[in-house]
Task: structure prediction
Amino acid sequence: MSKLKGFMAPKTPTGKSAIVPDMPWFYSGTLLTVEYLTDPAYVRAILPPELELADEQPGAVAFIWADWQSCSTDKAELLDPIRSQYLEAFVVVRCKYEGVTYSRCVAIWVTKDFAIARGWFQGYPKKLGSAHVTRVFNHGVATPKVAAGGKFGATLSAYDHRLANAIVTLKEPVDSNGFVNGHKMLHSRWVPSITPGAGNSLDQLITMGGVDADLGQAWGGDAELELFDSQWDELASILPVEKILGGYFREVGVTFNGGTLVADNSNPSI
Amino acid sequence: MSKLKGFMAPKTPTGKSAIVPDMPWFYSGTLLTVEYLTDPAYVRAILPPELELADEQPGAVAFIWADWQSCSTDKAELLDPIRSQYLEAFVVVRCKYEGVTYSRCVAIWVTKDFAIARGWFQGYPKKLGSAHVTRVFNHGVATPKVAAGGKFGATLSAYDHRLANAIVTLKEPVDSNGFVNGHKMLHSRWVPSITPGAGNSLDQLITMGGVDADLGQAWGGDAELELFDSQWDELASILPVEKILGGYFREVGVTFNGGTLVADNSNPSI
Amino acid sequence: MSKLKGFMAPKTPTGKSAIVPDMPWFYSGTLLTVEYLTDPAYVRAILPPELELADEQPGAVAFIWADWQSCSTDKAELLDPIRSQYLEAFVVVRCKYEGVTYSRCVAIWVTKDFAIARGWFQGYPKKLGSAHVTRVFNHGVATPKVAAGGKFGATLSAYDHRLANAIVTLKEPVDSNGFVNGHKMLHSRWVPSITPGAGNSLDQLITMGGVDADLGQAWGGDAELELFDSQWDELASILPVEKILGGYFREVGVTFNGGTLVADNSNPSI
Amino acid sequence: MSKLKGFMAPKTPTGKSAIVPDMPWFYSGTLLTVEYLTDPAYVRAILPPELELADEQPGAVAFIWADWQSCSTDKAELLDPIRSQYLEAFVVVRCKYEGVTYSRCVAIWVTKDFAIARGWFQGYPKKLGSAHVTRVFNHGVATPKVAAGGKFGATLSAYDHRLANAIVTLKEPVDSNGFVNGHKMLHSRWVPSITPGAGNSLDQLITMGGVDADLGQAWGGDAELELFDSQWDELASILPVEKILGGYFREVGVTFNGGTLVADNSNPSI
Result:
């Protein structure tokens, strides 16, 4: 009897229909980041109880727009580029667990379903959104340059509500594109029981991160960031901006090839 | 320490950001169905090994377009209707498990992320797609009537590839809108381990179905159905049409309020 | 030599590619309307100089959401419904020209390109937008009823900025769904010269309206309306709400089959 | 009395709502081109009678995907990038008029309404479509390089029907990215009378082209191109591929600032 194939749903005899193919997954893109401080109490409130605040700058937040092209091993996605290109806008804080400092994504919107699927597997709390970020072209004047004065805009909306606007104006090359998203991620993966109120069938803490990073020169500069809430999405209220730390632009390549289980509270018998 | 809330991701202190709020979920809509026969070997091949073919008409398939408006208990979604309205196109076969006949969805595309989230929780193998179905209006001539000769079109595409076209021409009132999707659903819910190749952390067989059905008069008639494959989605190759059984239209209301665990093969320690 | 065919662009030997086929065009749908008063000075400011304010209630404005299914004579669009269904949200004021009172659309967003094309031909100042309005279903609880207490929401956004929110709560059957959009339309059609600064090659005032109206019972009730501006679209600033007059819901069918030239200021030699 | 402002609709007191602001318009982007030969009879058939075939290679066709970021003089669009970025896929042939050889766009799909508006002003027969083209990133492996062997995919769909697929594999730097789209454009601009069957109120032949071209190095190579028809769009049937000539990639910047009237057949009195 033929075994069904497919890393994620749907499984078929060939496995071709899977919303996400087998790892590894490869990414080329750009990151536009705004880092800011909020009151650490807000970060504390968005972390599950078992996690602690980071020791230094516990109120630091990174809001990142990633403009990705991605593919799996055979790179077939690159030739049907609607299946390869997407944007994501996400919010990262830091936390501490058993003495180790981690980064943790607490909100994220992406533009394609395959990216949602990858994210749920990885513990990213992904939803669909409409994200845009200014691109860099090498010719003409309808583009910023990666140079002092280069100005980038970025926006996010979901369900037709504008949720975030950012502007980053580059000043100079810097060592890194921020410090908040610089650790291994510590993420929760859970699936509620199909029985109402019974708890979670799956409930894991996992850690993961990219490998084979191929990094361009980071640029830093000034940033503006406006956050909004809608009826369906919270940003301004959960991690309000107290003080902008800076803005960054960087071209990056990275590979994702899985992670490690950290703790398990699953109850698969429900 | 505040406890995070949210039925599904992301969790926040208020729970408002959850991609899906708590059950129950309420649905009002229309179903356009084409039922057909394929070779039972194709149905066998798309079922996991532990399931058996149904005893009668094991090669029967239902291709269903649902045009939904849905909401949760406070009905807030109805007043921001982008958050409430969506379409889905899905393929249902039947199967047998421990002597009981079930319906099972083997492929499904929806137009909104909250519908993906609900589906993954329920074991529907949901992806995003672009689904359309002719609507019924009560005035003017740019509409079919729910009457003999009423003609409905329905289409599905994903990643800019057309995957299905259907036409249903109504003939007469009938007792039900098909028999394939008439049992409790038997669905698989699984989440691969974050460790590559380690198997599934969650792996359940669950059953579920709607409650409080509020059904309109079913109409039956003739149907045409074209299925296609793309590089990313299989329809024509996995469940090819051998013989059309009929087409149906029905207005329906239904509530979803969870299901029951049937079998568990999870390994949350990976 | 074959003559090219096509009511609007692109023309081809068959005419099949035209973004809009030949008239007549048929529409079935629903209208959700909020009527309100603004200061007549705002209406005056949004009218071209050659038009006058209406004699009575010159500050009256109608904000209308239309949820359409439309087709041309062979009704082929109905069977590929993505080509048939669209929404539009539009703002209508009244004006007077040579002693006759007209309705005039001063802002409109639609969800499909064929609707933009029809609109530009008709003098509607159409742009793309994302419009949503609560639908009525006959079964289940995720729907308002066309009855006292029935509550409808409607929203508009463009370029990811929310531009309008409305809620209409039905009270009782009424004679008509408002008075602002009840006259023949008086619209401007113009095309700037391809030479910068040279003026308009086409510059006409035309009148038009639907024919063969097939109207359902109008319902009236209370309404709320919020308007916003974005960087690209003006609503709150051009026709601010002073006083809500009422809200309406009506199912309608209508046919469009052209109009009449009223005045011409074209200069096609530029 | 305040004069209304707005290059194109809608006009308002400020002019801010215009779907397109005043020229000049600035573009930065990339062009992926496939040139091929069709039977010149097909080119003849898609030209209006008053135009002649080009003298040399009259059956040559260019299918071009452009991935644009564009803005007007104040560059505000660049900071709300959803208003700035779009793709277009278009088909260009050549023709001769009064002894001069021109390029002429006979089919074009774009992803934003402002691009439709600019196009109709310019005589491009624009419709909405979904266009995608592989992008070049400087880091990681999920990207082609602008180098021998670099492989680019491009696709087009409209109304959920796939219309074109292309693959270009770069070989070497070349002098230009094709010859078909290398002349001034000769375009038709027309608006039918609002009176059915009365002819065209506006009917002009105009010429236009970009200025201030800032061109990157052109790369040439091998190409594949598949064309399809849908019920609403003709490609395979109007300009079928007989022989592929080559494929090209080039980064470009350009400015558009109007054109010149060539011939007028308008009848604004209808």
In short: Residues 103 and 185 of chain C are 5 Å apart (CA to CA).
